[in-house]
Amino acid sequence: MLDPNAAIYGRERELDLVSDFIGAAHARRTAPSAALVLEGPVGIGKTTIWSEATSRAALAGVTVRSCRCSASDSAWAFSGLGDLFDAMPETVLAELPNVQRDALGAALLLEATTAIAPGDRVVAVAVLGVLRVLARSAPLLLAIDDIQWLDSTSRTVLTYALRRLEVGLAVVASRRTGDDSESEHRADDGESFLGLPGARLTVGPVSVGALQEIVRSKLSMRLSRPTLTRLHRATGGNPMVSLEMSRALRHRSTDTILIDDPLPVPSDVRLLVADRLNRLSDAARDLLVVCAALAHPSIDALATAVAAPARVTETLTEVIELGLIEIDGRRVRFAHPLMASVAYADLSDAARARLHGRLAEVTSDPEERARHLALATSGRDAVVADALELAAEHARRRGSRDAAAEYAELSIGRTPFECADDHRRRRVVAAGYLFHLGYPDRARAMVVESQVDARPGPERVRGLLLLATIDFWTSGSAAAVRWCEQAMQEAGSDPESAARCHATLADFAPYSAVALLGHARTAVELLDAVADPPPDVLASALKNVAYHDLRLGNALSLPLLERAAAAEARSDPVPITERVGMCSGMLLRFAGQLSAARVCLTQMLQSARDEGDESALPNIFGHLALLECWAGDYRLALQHVGDGLDSTARTGISSPSVTAAHSLAEAHLGHVDQAREIAQAALRYDESQGEAADVACDLRSIGFTELSVGAHEPAAEHFLRAMSIAADLGVSEPAILRIHADAVEALVALGRLAEAEHLTEQLDTVSGADAAWSNAMAQRCRGLLLAADGELSAAADAFAGSLRAQATVGMPFEDARTRLLFGRVLRRLGRRTEARDMLEPAAAAFDDLNTPLYGQQARAELDRLGGRGPNPLTLTATEMRVAELVGTGRTNQEAAATLFISVRTVESHLGRIYRKLGLRSRTELAAKLSTDAGTQP
């Protein structure tokens, strides 16, 4: 029902619907967000109902965040978001990660912008974070008046956030309709509702009776019924138009309004508003046009910008009393957006230019100054073009590529024809913005145009390399290489330009690893000769040196990666998948530093979430899953696989690492059919796409699956084909694919000893990425070959050496496999006790790892030993040795080193020791050993 204390007349139905919508806010927290859009022509009363909705929501305990948009606001990046988040409690912002808090502060001009721009989505993710915090403690309402004027940057980030917010909230917005010139083109549901489902409420005319109350309460006028009827018919029941016409009637007469007084019925309500504004003092009109032209009008800004600053307080009082503007703290707002539009539009072109020229002199914000300069002048002007270029850079550092692209394109149009170098540079910069915004065709055309009249030389290199980047993503690497090679020719002796060419080739070219390493190293050498090298190019080149060096079988250079990370920290953020941290995580995994790799990849995962880079998630989860496959935690690997598949479903971006880890994990867990199906489907797809590196990974998965069930012939063929592809790609580091040892096992089982010997020699000669793994696997392979030749004692020595080498590798599955192979040889030598001591821990490890196919093999070997096994409550020799070491104070790491086993195996032994002896701690184990020693004769 209508609140009797509210001065709103004739809107009972609308207010009841609004109240119902607000009343559902509490229930909506567990339901999807929804919007209510109040629609109608200018002056119909949408803002009045919208304001009442915000008041009622606040009284109902709903947190309200509101903004009122105007035509001038649509030109300013993040202006609507600035209103919505104005005076945000510091406690809310404090819950955001630093990267989000900094980006939001820069976007809303809460703090100075930095030289480094935030990532493309950081501001949007920060907005999502703020909404989550606000909605957590109370129902939340976003109220947006005149949403058709909401700036595009705010619209984009709000749409992003609202579509991802888990807690439901309400949006109440007003939107102007009709055919007047200010009715925006954004009329479809998606735009109006910021991507939310919702309802439209058409605000119609008021009744004659309601109109009488409105005129009486607002103007203290009493009109006769015939006059009211005429007024209602003339205005169509539009409250604002009726009020303006009533003001005009009162202005004509100081006495009673007569029945036969002619009504002022202009065709456009603007004329009525303009007539009202024209009756103001000169100072008041000047204040209003300044307020309409400013990006962020405030009392302080008006005091410096109006023509009569000494009278600003007096003038403010005048316009406030007339109901033209409102004061909110230090901020100044028009009572109705139409007032601002009419005040500004009523100026002549010359007066408008003088106004903006004056404002350009008093504003310090680069973006606002550039706009005022552009509006104050016409034609090509070097000063204006420079200001617009500076504004583009400022907008970029605030996180608004949209605004940056607009300023950059404006700067091109204002650049004098004789400034050809500036014109070319600005076209390349603007094209870069357009490409990142998803307009490759426009970007490409702009770069091509910039090169038409330019003489070949270093000045064209950046444009040519941008063409290489665009064509790489749209047409493939061959087109990109052609542009790079042309850029290389034109770079000449300029070291920075040449370095950019070499670094780009190291990224894009389909060359061998040797050639790519050469380009990356050359780029670094050239940049080292530059006084202030571009940090993004240096980071990319250093990263590629480390990557390609490792591919060729050399040791991983951590100092190179650290230097690359330091350079990257000084540059604008690149996509997560291209960052040094992502590359480091992958390379550290290849180098066998699994814990360090896990740290890097987890940091990249957090960065992707903090910055909203969802496209990176499938790749990150894929690498984490592969890492856990190597670490022996297949359940965690499958969890990462599931997260990667979920990310793919959301983004449409897939990662071959996810599929590779999926099939490997299923194969280790004994799910052979599922592993085959996953890997073979991936193989068919990757072969059809010509993705050679991915094909090699698919073959590795299929080969391991076949090896696990004893299908040695297909296993060997898949392994050998994968290694052939890797060789063709220039990958000579065995630790990347890690299939040499599997291939040797399959080949030895087939009696193809010469091939197995060749692969073993490759492992023997490696001293690169993960020398410990290569050494351990080489000795294991040597043990298999020796055993096949009947040299069992030498084979046993080789397996023992392999176990010692594996103590630092941290791959428990491989440790258990080596014990299984070692146990077989010991059994054949007749060293039954030693064989049992080797096979029992292997079987236990396979059980702990949940790898049943290999557990069955270990138990089958134990069965071949014959005789009775030990009492299940009796410790094995290995368990007794572990118990003695741990019980006398050794750490798990020390016990593992002493016994040449992994820490994970020591932990498994300890678990079984505790269960067998009924103990719960190391302290109880030490006491048990002490007691047993004391009772021995």
Task: Write up this protein.
The protein is mainly alpha-helical. It contains 49 helices and seven strands. A five-stranded parallel beta sheet has the order 2-3-4-1-5, sandwiched between helices. A two-stranded antiparallel sheet has the order 6-7. Helix 32 (617-631) packs antiparallel against helix 33. The longest helix is centred in the middle third of the chain and has 18 residues, at 594-611. The chain is elongated, with a radius of gyration of 37 Å. The N and C termini lie far apart (96 Å). 51% of the residues are buried.
Structural class: mainly alpha
- What's the total number of strands? 7
Portion in strands: under 5%
Count of alpha and pi helical runs: 49
Task: Give the averaged pLDDT, no decimals.
Answer: 87
Looking at the structure, what is the overall shape? elongated
Major beta sheet summary: 5 strands, parallel
Write the topology of this structure.
Blueprint: H1 12-23, H2 25-28, E1 34-40, H3 46-59, E2 63-68, H4 79-84, H5 90-93, H6 98-107, H7 122-137, E3 140-145, H8 152-164, E4 170-176, H9 189-192, E5 198-202, H10 208-219, H11 225-235, H12 239-252, H13 269-278, H14 282-293, H15 299-305, H16 312-321, E6 325-328, E7 331-334, H17 337-345, H18 349-362, H19 366-376, H20 382-398, H21 401-414, H22 420-436, H23 440-451, H24 461-475, H25 477-491, H26 495-508, H27 513-528, H28 535-551, H29 558-568, H30 580-590, H31 594-611, H32 617-631, H33 634-651, H34 656-668, H35 672-689, H36 692-708, H37 712-728, H38 734-737, H39 740-749, H40 753-764, H41 771-788, H42 792-806, H43 812-828, H44 832-849, H45 852-865, H46 877-887, H47 892-899, H48 903-917, H49 922-935
Parallel strand pairs: 1-4, 1-5, 2-3, 3-4
Antiparallel strand pairs: 6-7
Helix pairs in contact: 1-3, 6-7, 7-8, 10-12, 11-12, 12-13, 13-17, 14-16, 14-17, 18-19, 19-20, 20-21, 21-22, 22-23, 22-24, 23-24, 24-25, 24-26, 25-26, 26-27, 26-28, 27-28, 28-29, 28-30, 30-31, 31-32, 32-33, 32-34, 33-34, 34-35, 34-36, 35-36, 36-37, 37-39, 39-40, 39-41, 40-41, 41-42, 41-43, 42-43, ...
